[in-house]
């Protein structure tokens, strides 16, 4: 499908690729990784023909379509969410424009637009777009909102929906998970697993790469090195490969040293001069082995530490918080103790970010009390809270002013680990992107930390070495930490306890994330982040060694055995009845789906008939078609639920 042959490219006086080659085949799932500045985005630009290679070639199989999602700042005009998502067909876009220009049904141009829309399968495309938009967490009333009224993250989601609807042969994604919440991310991962085309993705999310990718391509030493398997498999293979390369490098260095020693010793002697010249030629012809690329080291700077708080950091008592008619918390009580390092998990909308905002005093209490402990100081970081940045200063000046005890060299080192490198530190903060402002706000918070730190998705917009730098800083941090994150690697490195939030109830787990996975019975580390409640667990106030011993199970007599067998037989009978009921409902649904599909085809055919517009019945047909599509979606969704339920019952004995 795509072949990169002997590619060379320099950018800004730096050689990024030299004789690099890569083959992308249909069905490939490739994660593209490399140090910041290694050339990941440049490689995308070359494939998209936005830049030209200095040497080599890029061959794309005939009629192969490409789809690209940039990391941020995708273009948008004066269209709605649904218009952008369905803009893969120019005729449909033209029909949308005409309908906006001529909104009245009696207008001939309006009728012409409706005919154009129907002739190009606009209704089917619209229904498919709505399904994808729902998966990306758009609500029904968002579909007709203008993108100009929405945040950058939602605009990027709309562009992603458009790409998924387009179904290009090669889907190229640059950090696609940055703008997705956990439920959307789960839906997106499942969608990509079944995607019919090839995928080439740049991502810092280890769990995402493990879930999606069948191979990893690392940009290293100006080459493209391909490893089979997911990211974890890459790490194992990379370590083995680096070990082999280091051994080969050391062997060659010893050989070079011996040859050079011979040359230096015997070059001037007539009896050995010919042999010395032969070794000089061999050295000149030798292809030098480079040492393995050094992993970017986590910075060793000792971050400033906050003043010590009292044992009780703060206490919430019988707090109530609602949004309109939706009550998030009722009679919520919570005590935070010094040194607590807790990750907040639970389904979307359960109240994780709301709890952080309550703790940070961003949201005023509607009822209840909020009591600070002795000497508590608060710091809150969320992706959209960058008003702490002075837009008249440079990046470097912002950091130095935030912590006067930090030298310029140290400030530049820390900024470098958070992706502000070289001349970037002299940028005016006003021109920074949203991601850059978030990173700068995070650096300022770490350099002047409070003793109670609240973080909402702190790893967004950070690459892997930067995430490691953040982990290093937070491991040093001696205060109290509450955070929300979808990055399992980050959670495992930082969290010492887990607070599960669901339906206004907080359930504490006294151990780290793996302890939570074990006690909650979660099926995967990623899905556990948004799982509903799992029953009773050990709390922070009930350590494991304080639990009472379990009673010894009594011996079972003959009567009890017979009763148990009768109960098991009854259970099998009920299970069989449930299976038959499910099979009957599935059969009825399948008949309804077949009927609705035939109705859909009939109405689409009627709308394609120009006479329907002459008789002015197109509007009614259109309304009827939309109703059929909606019913069909509901029936198909219910059918999938029942199939899954039947499958689970069939697995039971």
Could you describe the 3D structure shown?
This protein is an alpha/beta fold. The chain has helices at residues 40-47, 81-85, 90-101, 108-119, 122-135, 152-166, 182-193, 206-212, 231-266, 273-285, 352-359, 395-402, 408-417, 434-447, 464-476, 488-494, 513-520, 558-608, 611-614, 618-651, and strands at 2-11, 14-24, 29-33, 55-60, 66-69, 170-174, 198-202, 215-220, 223-228, 312-323, 326-337, 341-345, 367-372, 378-381, 452-456, 480-484, 497-502, 505-509. The strands form four sheets. It has a six-stranded mixed beta sheet with strand order 5-6-7-3-8-9, with helices on both faces. A hairpin with a 2-residue loop joins strand 1 (2-11) and strand 2 (14-24). Helix 12 (395-402) packs parallel to helix 14 (434-447) and helix 18 (558-608) packs antiparallel against helix 20. The longest helix is centred in the last third of the chain and has 51 residues, at 558-608. The chain is globular and about 105 Å long. The chain starts with a strand and ends with a helix. The relative contact order is 0.08.
Notable traits:
653 residues; alpha/beta; 6-stranded mixed β-sheet; 18 strands; 45% helix; 18% strand; globular
Largest sheet: 6 strands, mixed
Number of helices: 20
Helix content: 40-55%
Please give the radius of gyration in angstroms: 31 Å
Residue fraction in strands: 15-25%
Taking pLDDT < 50 over at least 5 consecutive residues as the criterion, the unreliable ranges are 535-556
Average per-residue pLDDT, rounded, comes to 82
């Amino acid at each position: 499908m795509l072949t990169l042959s002997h590619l060379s490219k320099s950018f800004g006086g730096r050689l990024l690729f030299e004789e690099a080659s890569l083959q992308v085949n249909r069905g490939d799932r490739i994660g593209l990784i490399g140090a910041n500045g290694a050339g990941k985005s440049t490689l995308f630009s070359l494939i998209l023909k936005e830049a030209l290679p200095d040497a080599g070639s890029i061959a794309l199989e005939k009629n192969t379509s490409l789809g690209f999602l940039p990391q941020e700042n995708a273009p948008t005009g004066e269209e709605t969410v649904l218009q952008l998502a369905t803009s893969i067909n120019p005729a449909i876009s033209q029909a949308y424009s005409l309908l906006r220009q001529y909104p009245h049904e009696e207008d001939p141009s309006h009728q012409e637009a409706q005919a154009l829309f129907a002739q190009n399968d606009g209704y089917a495309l619209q229904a498919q777009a709505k399904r994808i938009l729902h998966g990306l967490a758009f609500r029904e009333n968002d579909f007709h909102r203008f993108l100009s009224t929405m945040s950058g993250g939602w605009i990027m989601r709309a562009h992603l929906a458009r790409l998924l609807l387009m179904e290009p042969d090669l889907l190229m994604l640059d950090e696609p998970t940055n703008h997705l919440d956990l439920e959307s991310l789960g839906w997106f991962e499942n969608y990509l697993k079944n995607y019919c085309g090839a995928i080439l993705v740049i991502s810092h999310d280890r769990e995402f790469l493990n879930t999606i990718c069948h191979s990893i391509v690392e940009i290293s030493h100006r080459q493209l090195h391909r490893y089979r398997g997911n990211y974890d498999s890459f790490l194992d293979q990379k370590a083995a490969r680096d070990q082999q390369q280091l051994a080969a490098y050391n062997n060659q260095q010893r050989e070079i040293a011996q040859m050079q020693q011979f040359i230096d010793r015997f070059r001037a002697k007539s009896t050995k001069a010919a042999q010395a010249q032969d070794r000089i030629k061999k050295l000149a012809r030798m292809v030098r082995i480079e040492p393995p690329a050094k992993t970017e080291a986590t910075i060793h700077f000792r971050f400033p530490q906050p003043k010590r708080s009292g044992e009780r950091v703060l206490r919430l008592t019988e707090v109530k918080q609602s949004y309109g008619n939706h009550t998030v918390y009722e009679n919520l009580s919570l005590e935070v103790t010094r040194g607590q390092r807790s990750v907040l998990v639970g389904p979307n909308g359960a109240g994780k970010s709301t709890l952080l905002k309550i703790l940070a005093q961003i949201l005023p209490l509607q009822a209840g009390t909020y009591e600070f402990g002795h000497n508590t100081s608060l710091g809150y970081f969320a992706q959209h809270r960058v008003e702490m940045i002075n837009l008249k200063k440079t990046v470097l000046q912002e950091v130095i002013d935030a912590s006067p005890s930090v030298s310029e060299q140290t400030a530049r080192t820390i900024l470098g680990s958070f992706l502000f490198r070289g001349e970037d530190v002299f940028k005016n903060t006003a021109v920074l992107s949203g991601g850059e402002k978030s990173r700068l706000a995070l650096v300022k918070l770490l350099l002047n930390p409070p003793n109670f730190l609240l973080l909402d998705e702190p790893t967004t917009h950070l690459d892997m070495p930067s995430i490691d730098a953040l982990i290093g800083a937070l491991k040093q941090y001696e205060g109290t930490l509450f955070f929300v994150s979808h990055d399992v690697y980050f959670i495992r490195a930082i969290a010492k306890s887990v607070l599960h939030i669901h339906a206004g109830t907080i359930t504490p787990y006294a151990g780290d994330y793996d302890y939570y996975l074990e006690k909650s019975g979660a099926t995967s580390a990623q899905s556990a982040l948004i799982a509903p409640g799992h029953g009773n667990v050990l709390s922070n106030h009930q350590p494991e060694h304080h639990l009472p011993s379990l009673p010894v199970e009594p011996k079972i007599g003959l009567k009890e055995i017979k009763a148990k067998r009768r109960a098991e037989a009854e259970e099998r009978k009920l299970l069989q009845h449930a299976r038959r009921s499910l099979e009957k409902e599935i059969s009825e649904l399948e008949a309804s789906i077949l009927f609705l599909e035939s109705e859909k085809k009939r109405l689409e055919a009627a709308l394609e008939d120009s006479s329907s517009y002459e008789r002015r019945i197109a509007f009614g047909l259109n309304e009827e078609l939309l109703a059929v599509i909606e019913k069909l979606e509901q029936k198909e969704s219910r059918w999938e639920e029942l199939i899954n339920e039947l499958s689970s019952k069939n697995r039971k004995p």
